[in-house]
Design brief:
Elements lengths: L11 H6 L7 E4 L3 E5 L9 E5 L11 H22 L3 E5 L13 E6 L20 H16 L9
Antiparallel strand pairs: 1-2, 2-3, 3-5, 4-5
């Protein structure tokens, strides 16, 4: 019997990942799906999605998160061999910046003059000057999130 997924039929990501909408599928298994982005930055721009409905990274179960990370590494190797890019970008936007309404990771080849840029905004809030305070705030909460023992299925 196949795995049962929590799907949202109103979610385009769910429909694409589960073959209910047409996509140029590159890979799929029982947990994840990978297909070509319909608005590629460069040739070979891929989207990697869980088949189950999730919006953000912190909602993914360990099995799904590990499947996505392993596949992103395999896709990176494949894109490097196929396109010989200057680099690979792996990108994920969460919350209101997630334009699909379903967790997805972009994996795409990059070239020096491809026009894609990480633009660092002006440091209006003096974030660079507040590194010590920021570190103290993170230290105050990190044990609840970052010091969990690894499970049997973790790598």
């Amino acid at each position: 019997m196949g795995r049962r997924y929590r799907l949202n039929k109103n979610c385009l990501g769910c429909r694409l990942a589960n073959g209910l909408e047409a996509a140029h599928m590159v890979y799929e298994d029982e947990v994840i799906a990978c297909f070509l982005d319909i608005a590629p930055l460069n040739e070979g721009h891929l989207l990697l999605l869980p088949k189950e409905h999730h919006l953000d990274l912190d909602e993914l179960d360990e099995r799904t998160a590990m499947a996505i990370m392993r596949m992103s590494a395999a896709l990176s190797k494949m894109l490097k061999e196929l396109y010989r890019p200057d680099g690979i970008t792996i990108l994920q936007n969460g919350g209101k910046f997630n334009d699909l309404g379903h967790y997805h990771m972009h994996v795409f080849p990059r070239y020096e003059d491809d026009g894609f840029a990480w633009v660092e905004p002006a440091d209006r809030n003096n974030n660079r000057g507040r590194l010590e305070e920021t570190k103290a705030a993170i230290d105050g909460i990190s044990k609840r999130y970052l010091h969990k023992p690894m499970g049997e299925n973790d790598v």
